[in-house]
Amino acid sequence: MIWLWIGFLLLVFIFLALDLGVFNRHAHVISVKEALRWTGVWIAMAMLFNVLVYFIYEHHWFDMVGYVKQLDAATGEMVNVPATGMQMALQYLTGYIIEKSLSMDNIFVIAVIFGYFKVPAIYQHRVLFWGILGALVMRGVMIAIGAVMIKSFSWTIYIFGGLLIVTAIRMLMSGDEHGDPNNNWLVRAARKVYPVADEYDGQKFFTIVNGRKAITKLMLVLLVVESTDVLFAVDSIPAIFAVTEDPFIVFTSNVFAILGLRSLYFALAGMIDKFRYLKPSLVFVLAFVGVKMIISHHYPLPTWISLSVIVGILAVGVVASLLAPAKPHAKPSTAVGPGLSDEEKDTTGADGH
Fold first, then answer.
1. From the DSSP assignment, how many helices (H) and strands (E) are in the chain?
2. pLDDT value at residue 10
3. Are 256 and 248 contacting, i.e. CB atoms less than 8 angstroms apart?
């Protein structure tokens, strides 16, 4: 089993090394066309891995055995029974869709952060790369803790379910309001440790100001993105534990959803205003998953039913957004998304490189 984990982590490392060291070695503005192409690549890779999940659990490669909850007719209690490869593949797919849909809220917030700090489009990919690398590490730790808690204390699942319902209510009440990124606790702590440069210094995170080492505005943006992802992970990780308690499925579906977040951001950043009903859909998804989690010990829902409900809720939100007339006051921000500023056009050339 350990070799499967090592192999997957090595695969992720190769993906990240190719991303930063080969395909995006030189800073450039990510066009919508390029972002859509990479979004398709990441989704295709996630689905190919889903096929691998089927064979791993169906044929017990690396001694991997999956389980599903089932009501014992004799005792009336929930018991774990060995799962088929198809059942585990459905768990992975459902978890991936949940994490992918919840990452849409990340995109909305990241767009606000980039717009607030006026991050040049040419440096946005670098922030997202290191932000996602940090997110992978933090989520890995949180998933490990969550798995241990659920295994050791079965009542934890009720807390996770309640947390999701509270989060759904909070998201519904908050609307489109976002706090001031400068009030972020991590930003305030960083300002106490290092002086902060007033301007960007290329794509550097550190620079020299008056002979002292200082952090750049780009580092401040990275800190806000990282701390924001921790808050989102508190919501999204319990959500996937409602689908499966298998740590490998939880982690791998999370990883593939996060790896595709950068390209998805650049593909959708300029169209965020068009998905006005997607956030209410996410509220219903969180509420549904929370309820499912709370009743799972007594009335477990088959994975295919959960998948159908979640896909249906998201589809309604997307279709309603596309059919609804655009808001009259909606105006895309030049500081958000993959567009070029006049300064960047002068320094990067017509092709964006």
1. 12, 4
2. 94
3. no
